[in-house]
Amino acid sequence: MQKQTITTDNEDVLAFSMVAVAAALADTSRVKILCALMDGRAWTATELSAVADVASSTASAHLARLVQSRLISCLSQGRHRYYRLAGGDIAQLIETMMGVSWWRVAAPEPSTPADMRYARTCYDHLAGEVAVQIYDAMRDAQWITADGAALTDTGRRHLTELGIEPDAGTRRKHCCACLDWSERRFHLGGYIGAAFFQHGEAQDWLVRTPGYRMVTITPKGRMMLNRHFKLAL
């Protein structure tokens, strides 16, 4: 009886926690703030109030709620305070919600800019059409397992040849299939997704658009991605 009571208590705690997260997300302004933070940068309260189109005092209340719910974190730098997503798991949650929400719209006409659907940031990794093609190529070439949940020995070898350390000590999940809301398919998240994006930036394959989520694939990047993944960018 005691074991059953403990199990029930744990289930109740989990249920209440899920309700708390859902309640924190159940506001249009807070969702706009979270979507803005998907570019991986830290934003000020003033910038986020403009994104959410609310007064500064209202934005402060929303930010406090999101911090309390551990969806975002607050960083103090001198007199300034910056806000960012609490981690990659939160980014994956937001991206998945975008995909699930988009599916509920019948035959939608794309209103998102084409360049953002083509390549953009998903927190700290690449998303969009190009990212989905790379994920499919990695899976087909057996760099990752069929479900995208783990790196294979073949993948480790190829990533090492690219100059990416595949087994760096990290508590973060190495690989995960992250649902791409615009393509409604998967792109690569986790540590490997982030490491691949950082490598692409360092090698001048990818260039972020300052202040936005859009990413430009450079001529060098198109050449290298075509070479390594047999794409046709």
TrEMBL record:
This is Winged helix-turn-helix transcriptional regulator. It comes from Enterobacter agglomerans.
